[in-house]
Design brief:
The protein is of the alpha+beta class. It has 3 helices and 4 strands; from the N terminus they run E-H-E-E-H-H-E. It has a 4-stranded antiparallel sheet with strand order 2-3-1-4. The longest helix has 17 residues. It is globular, with a radius of gyration of 14 Å. The mean pLDDT is 95.
Length: 101
């Protein structure tokens, strides 16, 4: 299993837009074979940091998701929503593998 961890620098004035954007991607990642673990929105502390994570069975499965997302109409609509709203300024993507007992 591989988990993608995302750290976003969000626009504090556009948190509702970012939540809407996140809800789109939760469904889309799940639709395209992943397991989305949700978004964490700013509460106490920094008002411009949001987090998200999702998992795929393997890096190959993640790459297949990326390829499918590039041509999926709903994914393109989610990206167009971001282009219209600019609800985040930047993001960082990191990958992790779990260690179990």
């Amino acid at each position: 299993m591989i988990t993608c961890f995302l750290r976003y620098e969000v626009d504090p004035d556009k948190l509702k837009d970012f939540e809407d954007y996140g809800r789109m991607w939760i469904r889309l990642v799940n639709k395209l074979g992943g397991t989305h673990h949700g978004y964490l929105m700013p509460s106490e502390g920094a008002s411009d940091v949001a987090l998200a994570s999702f998992s795929f069975p393997s890096m190959a499965a993640y790459e297949a998701y990326r390829k499918a997302a590039a041509t999926d109409a709903e994914c393109q609509a989610a990206m167009a929503f971001y282009e219209r709203t600019r609800c985040f300024r930047r993001y960082e993507r990191s990958f992790f593998r779990p260690v179990f007992e």
